[in-house]
DNA sequence: CTGTTAGCGCATTCAT
DNA sequence: ATGAATGCGCTAACAG
């Protein structure tokens, strides 16, 4: 690879002039300018990004740590993020993590000057203590300052409204395993029930079970009657549908399943109603936070998506 | 952030000694060694990756350009790749691309010294001319030297064998849109039919249609009878199942759908039989190619996956 | 064993 | 308008 010296020599100017021409700064005689551009063209010269980074004290890399548990969801975020980042000429350094330990590990490995900022996406486990400046997207627990979250209250409310409008008033909920998201979802759920004058039945809510399978099992075993089931995302919904069918609880005839996050539906989508979040918006806001254009938390509303 | 000078000063040694301790570490008096480690600990010092890269002329970044068209598939590769790369202390710089133009663009943007190597994953479109050293994973057209490909012949053969064993002998095929993958798939398909003494019927094969929807439409309209349908991946399969059901061609009773690549099934998996590829192996081989441990093409066999 | 020095490629003063 | 010099943080060659 040719470097700035090669170009300078060929163009018969100094390194400084080459740098000036290619970095946009004006105050260069048109003649030298052309000479530099020609030389660069001939040598197929690209300024070395690493040297630029060292000099400017800023790589243009953003570290993105993506939770693996709900990959289908996270992938949508990845795409949306990459799109926004590349619009800002930023690069996306990717890492996966499936628990607090590996997350922490990833954060440390990316904290050696290689990245200008970090994002954590879709972590559904309790987050460890993280550096304040990390941006959280759709994580359970906004322990850090900067975050973009989904409006869980609104989602749960909307879901309940929809189900009630479908004459399903015995609505079960398999909630998040904890964190603020769980609390907010519960709030929305209760609030909406209240609006419809449906009594709240504690037995219809399952929380803190290790898997949907177990949670749903517990719900069914309890013998409580339900005509609808709220779950936190599409993959849970898929699993729920299969299980319910096995138990002769046909979907949607006997039980209507509702996904509280169907943001990244597959092409051959299911007919399960869901709340869909605007991934582009979320990514855009996240990038704004990253680039320091704003500093606070940000809540995004999804919209009802029915077949 | 503290730098090597801070550590040297605090440890009362020179930069070189600090570097020695934290890098190769041999030939340093135990006493200085401890002093350096202590100082580094106190200052929470991490060697600056960018400076290291500039000095060593090698970032530890691998650029991965991921085709977006079949994201569900690609995501599996992404995870597997990241895992293998991090085992080798390499970082994954992610880019998405959906056609030859954006692919080329991505390649250029990553060719400024920021990456040590590049990978393209899952490109289902004809590839443009690319630098020879790029590694291709599961792409249609191995125009470049280094690539890891799926054994399409074997996949198609295996699929046909399975379907014949299920008494389905009228097997339709919606093939890849072109490239070597299409040819090989066709080869395997014909070979297996030949083995089972099933005559080859050109009408059963649809190629070069813009979407599965259209391809399948064409197949159905042609009036040709088929009791099985080979498609190239799970998302195509999903769509096919929906369409077939709409046309009263119930799956799997009337038509059995078979996915030639079901590598990244969702949790609530479907019951569609498929060929599954060992993503870990593929990623491992790709990384070997990347790190220059080998130089050639590599073909990986999948295995039959039935519910 | 260890300190000094010279790059790595570039951007940015500071003179001219 | 432009060239020479300096520094970004680190590693490696060389000289003690």
UniProtKB/TrEMBL annotation, chains A, B:
UniProt cross-references to PROSITE patterns, sorted A to Z: HTH_LACI_1, HTH_LACI_2
Stored SMART domains: HTH_LACI
Key words of the record: DNA-binding, Transcription, Transcription regulation
Organism lineage: Bacteria, Pseudomonadati, Pseudomonadota, Gammaproteobacteria, Enterobacterales
Domain of life: Bacteria
Domain HTH lacI-type: 2-56
Keyword Transport: no
Full protein name: LacI family transcriptional regulator
């Amino acid at each position: 690879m040719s470097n700035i010296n090669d170009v300078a020599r060929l163009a018969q100017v100094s390194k400084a002039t080459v740098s000036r021409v290619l970095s946009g700064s004006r105050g260069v005689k048109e003649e030298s300018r052309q000479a530099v551009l020609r030389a660069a063209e001939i040598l197929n010269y690209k300024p070395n990004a690493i040297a630029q980074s060292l000099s400017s004290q800023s790589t243009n890399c953003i570290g993105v740590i993506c939770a693996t548990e709900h990959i289908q969801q996270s992938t949508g975020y990845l795409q949306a993020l990459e799109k926004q980042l590349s619009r800002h000429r930023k690069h996306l350094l990717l890492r996966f993590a499936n628990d607090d330990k590996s997350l922490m590990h990833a954060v440390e490995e990316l904290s050696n000057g290689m990245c200008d900022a970090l994002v954590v996406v879709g972590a559904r486990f309790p987050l460890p203590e993280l550096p304040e400046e990390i941006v959280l997207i759709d994580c359970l627990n906004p322990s850090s300052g900067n975050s973009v979250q989904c409006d869980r209250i609104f989602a749960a409310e909307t879901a309940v409204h929809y189900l009630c409008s479908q004459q399903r008033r015995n609505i079960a909920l398999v909630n998040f395993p904890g964190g603020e998201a769980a609390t907010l979802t519960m709030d929305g759920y209760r609030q909406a029930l209240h609006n419809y004058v449906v009594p709240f039945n504690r037995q219809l809510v399952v929380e803190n079970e290790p898997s949907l399978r177990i949670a749903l099992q517990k719900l069914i075993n309890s013998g409580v009657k339900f005509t609808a089931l709220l779950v936190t995302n599409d993959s849970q919904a898929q699993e729920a549908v299969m299980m319910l069918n096995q138990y002769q609880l046909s979907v949607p005839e006997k039980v209507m399943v509702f996904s509280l996050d169907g943001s990244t539906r597959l092409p051959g989508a299911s007919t399960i109603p869901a709340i869909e979040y605007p991934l582009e918006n979320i990514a855009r806001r996240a990038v704004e936070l990253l680039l320091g254009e704003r500093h606070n938390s940000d809540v995004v509303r999804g919209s009802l998506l029915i077949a």
